[in-house]
Amino acid sequence: MSKTKQRIYLMIGPVLFVLCCLAIPKSAFPALAERAAIGTVAWMAFWWVTAPIDYAVTAFLPIAINALVTMCDMSAVISNYASETILLLLGASILTVSWEETGLDKRIAASLLGLIGDNLRIQLIFWFMLSTLLSAILPNAVVCATITPIAVSMLKYIGEGDIANSRIGSKLLLYIAYGAGLGGLTSPLGGAMNLVTVDYLQQLTGKEYMYASWVVRFLPIMIVLLLINIIFMIRDVKKGESLGGSREYFKKEYKKFPPTTIEEKISLALFVIATVLAFTRQFYQNLLPGLKPAYVFIICAILSFLITRSDGERLMLWKSVQTKIIWEMIYIFAGGLAVGTLINESGAAERIGELVSGMGLTGGLTTVFVIVTVTLLMSDVTSNTATAAVAIPIVISIVKGMGLNPIPYVYVASVGVNLSYMLPTSIRAIPVGYGLQPKYMLKEGWKMTVFIIISMTIVCTLLLKFWPAFSTV
């Protein structure tokens, strides 16, 4: 990027902020805090996509702007930079550094390539489906944070470690994040946003909501979404395109590795223990209520510093480890959470809901389209859980005002709440931290957003009209 272009991009960011503060009609967003929150999103999104400054630096804008134009209590903003999810990402990043120190990353990469093969389509579908299936019962951030470094190890092994300039690497990491988001829609256990929805469904019906009902209602939606994602993912991948080498070649390469060292075994064991405990929390949460996934990863990360080599020297020293931690990923994730806090705490999100309620909706296709579009776009700039907390009660209020059954429209809103594709916020910050360019994410994401809005509007409208079960719990 030329210096002139960089200066222009740097100036456009704050100009967008000022324009939002001054040009957005006060009739729509009366409070300066609301307009400033929208302006902060515009500023951050532009800088993340054009990259005139480091992505991690952009992630601190919510703090700086909120100090100048108060949109909410600063403690609410700052807390995002030390949230449980941030600690989870830090712990996972430290553990994967130990893989590099021991050479475990190369061993894992070779074994996976020998197992799955080198066909690019199969590789893409494998990682996407793995992420989707795991996130059906696990927090999306845990899934994305644990699968991404494994995929990165494989990419480095085949010479595709420069994710920013690797078509294969960029596509693979992007769809791991997409899968983690999509899988959350499969069941109420897929994320806190679904539990928020379940709580409102229980309030509407006055009875306990059976999780199996969710799976049944969303099964046709999930089938369509999976097909759309897979078709879009492999649309520009030739049928016989490979990663280079064959399955037999990678199997031979794996056999060349020396016997697994004790350091590798311990390094792998710590990561596996952290992952398994994070995935099985429901079985021990009553016994150890404080041992949440984030703290499990931090504990195992601390233990990794106790690993010693055969010569008695410690494997991990903070002086060297800190240079290999993916700090950018951590700060981008935090920045996404922080700007989401500004949108919600300033009242901008609630104001958007009020504007939607004043559109004179009457149910059917148009109402479904508006709900899917608004919730999906809100999920792109704030957290899925925050979107659910704001959007679901508004949807219920609007639909009740029409004299219609709100339950199917709550299901429709859940689709948009779970899906988002364009900006490096929420779990999409994780692949960006490993090198994926936000410009590429936006380029692919806006197309996916359009396809999803159109397809989900049609599918949900058909379900609402022709499938009575979609209107019940």
TrEMBL record:
Coiled coil: none
Descriptive protein name: Di-and tricarboxylate transporter
Bilayer disposition of the protein: Multi-pass membrane protein
PANTHER family from the UniProt entry: SOLUTE CARRIER FAMILY 13 MEMBER, SOLUTE CARRIER FAMILY 13 MEMBER 2
Cell compartments where the protein resides: Membrane
MF terms in GO: transmembrane transporter activity
One family name in Pfam for this protein: CitMHS
Stretches assigned to the Citrate transporter-like domain: 46-416
Transmembrane region(s): 45-69, 81-99, 124-152, 172-191, 211-234, 290-308, 329-349, 355-378, 385-403, 409-427, 448-467
GO terms under cellular component: plasma membrane
Family statement drawn from the similarity comment of this UniProt entry: Belongs to the SLC13A/DASS transporter (TC 2.A.47) family. NADC subfamily.
InterPro entries, alphabetized: Cit_transptr-like_dom
The organism's place on the tree of life at top rank: Bacteria
UniProt entry keywords in alphabetical sequence: Membrane, Transmembrane, Transmembrane helix, Transport
